[in-house]
Amino acid sequence: MTENEERLTAGRERTHKETGEDRAEHEPRQEDGAQVSTGSETAGAPETAIPELVIISGMSGAGRSTAAKCLEDLGWFVVDNLPPALIPTMVELGARSQGNVARIAVVVDVRGRRFFDNLRESLAGLDTRGVTRRIVFLESSDDALVRRFESVRRPHPLQGDGRIVDGIAAERELLRELRGDADLVIDTSSLNVHELRAKMDAQFAGEEEPELRATVMSFGFKYGLPVDADLVADMRFLPNPHWVPELRAFNGTNEEVSAFVFNQPGAKEFLDRYAELMRLIAAGYRREGKRYVTIAIGCTGGKHRSVAVSEKLAARLAAEGVETVVVHRDMGRE
């Protein structure tokens, strides 16, 4: 071998050795069969937050839908009739949502009975991952369930060609083990919808009072009453800014129009007393499980008086902790 060939060979070996050592510094090491990180992962990667999980199940007709809607109103992400085998996938998607889906409620019932056997396996897998989960089981007496199915004239999901009581008996047997594993059992035999919602609120609303959401809607009587209004107030007892030439072109969001309206006799008194009345009504709505209210404020055309009063009333409600949205239905129609 010539001198040049020896130098070339030595250089290749040195380069190969250095490259191999450099690669080894960046590759994970294997210790006892486990891959050990050497710090090559991206630093500061955000940790996924595992969402809280509630499984809602129980007897058909016992109030599963009402319980689910209650959790939805409390801000839970609710999935109805999800196959149990997909629950871990749902939790994984929630964990990847960067905190946008922190609480998940899944309704599991006999409509998905061919998947039902997978529920215990899915829950066991979630327990190993440290997922905080609870099972809510809705129970009811046979008599109450029969009355409910007869009142809506629908068959029981499991009765087949038999009677309603046959379907109820089959469902009880199918759900026996799940009922035994439940963290919370609610007997709805003698409960109405509002009482069931109150029980769910007591368990899941925490220390905070369930939230009431209000829509304050201005409208013009000449265009008809809002069909979705829970409460209606008539502002036509106040002078109409339409007949003031310098205000006619503006609407109730204008400061001059609003000042004109609330400088009229009775305007401020109405706002004060109506806001006080709404505090009383809102407390009753919360007790009865009503979470949404639409307050319609009307005047002739829905442009001046109703708009000005709606804006002020919405601000009062928001200041008292009511989540409020303002809608001016007829403003701009003239």
Supply database-style keywords.
4-stranded parallel beta sheet, 41% helix, alpha/beta, 334 residues
Structure commentary:
The structure is a single chain. With 334 residues, the protein is an alpha/beta fold. It has eleven helices and eleven strands. It has helices at residues 3-26, 64-73, 87-95, 118-128, 142-152, 164-174, 176-181, 193-204, 255-262, 267-287, 305-319, and strands at 29-31, 34-36, 52-58, 77-80, 103-107, 133-139, 184-187, 213-220, 231-234, 292-299, 323-328. A five-stranded parallel β-sheet has the order 4-5-3-6-7, with helices on both faces. A four-stranded parallel β-sheet has the order 9-10-8-11, with helices on one face. A two-stranded antiparallel sheet has the order 1-2. A hairpin with a 2-residue loop joins β1 and β2 (34-36). α2 (64-73) crosses α8 (193-204) and α10 (267-287) crosses α11. The protein is elongated, with a radius of gyration of 32 Å. The relative contact order is 0.11. The model is unreliable at 1-46 (pLDDT under 50).
Q: Report low-confidence residues grouped into runs of 5 or more.
A: 1-46
Give the strand line-up of the largest sheet. Answer: 4-5-3-6-7
> What is the number of E strands?
11
Calculate the terminal CA-CA distance, rounded to whole Å: 101 Å
What order do the SSEs take from the amino end to the carboxyl end, as H and E? Answer: HEEEHEHEHEHHHEHEEHHEHE
**Helical proportion, percent range:** 40-55%
The proportion of residues in beta strands is: 15-25%
> How many helical elements?
11
Describe the biggest sheet? 5 strands, parallel
- Global outline: elongated
Structural class: alpha/beta
Radius of gyration: 32 Å
The chain-level mean pLDDT equals 81
